Amino acid sequence: MARKHSKHGRYDDFDTPEEEEAPPPVPCWLCGRPTGSTIVWHHPIPKSRGGRDVVPMHGICQQTLTVNFTNSELQRIGMDVDKLLADPAVRKFVDWVANKDPDFTATIAKKQR
């Protein structure tokens, strides 16, 4: 025997909220492009060196920093993006990635030390 009233009500009883506009994309700390669906929260000063602040970045931009700089170098540079961009390898990368899609990913070659 079927119940007269459903325990949870009918499906059309739910009010569907109007779709809200998505917030504007956050710009990447290193390259300045809008971030895509994946945002990496990066510590410019590594946590192992006492860093607490985090900044939004693309995954590929974070990989570039970790390949080109040691934790000691990142600690000395701190939150100064201009010093990072002064490095020729980082400047070359930022110029290359400037016209790519926000969700673009690629393998970053390790720096020969």
Number of domains: 1
Strand order in space, largest sheet: 1-2
Rg result? 22 Å
Specify the number of helices: 4
Shape: elongated
Top keywords for this entry?
4 helices; single chain; 2 strands; mainly alpha; two-stranded antiparallel sheet; 113 residues
Task: Give an overview in words.
This protein is mostly helical and 113 residues long. The chain has 4 helices and 2 strands. It has one domain (25-112). The chain has helices at 59-68, 71-77, 81-85, 88-97, and strands spanning 40-42, 55-57. Helix 1 (59-68) runs antiparallel to helix 4. The chain starts with 39 loop residues before the first strand and ends in a 16-residue tail after the last helix. The mean pLDDT is 85.
Tell me briefly what this model is:
By secondary structure, the protein is mainly alpha-helical.
Give me the secondary-structure topology.
Blueprint: E1 40-42, E2 55-57, H1 59-68, H2 71-77, H3 81-85, H4 88-97
Antiparallel strand pairs: 1-2
Helix pairs in contact: 1-4
Protein name: HNH endonuclease
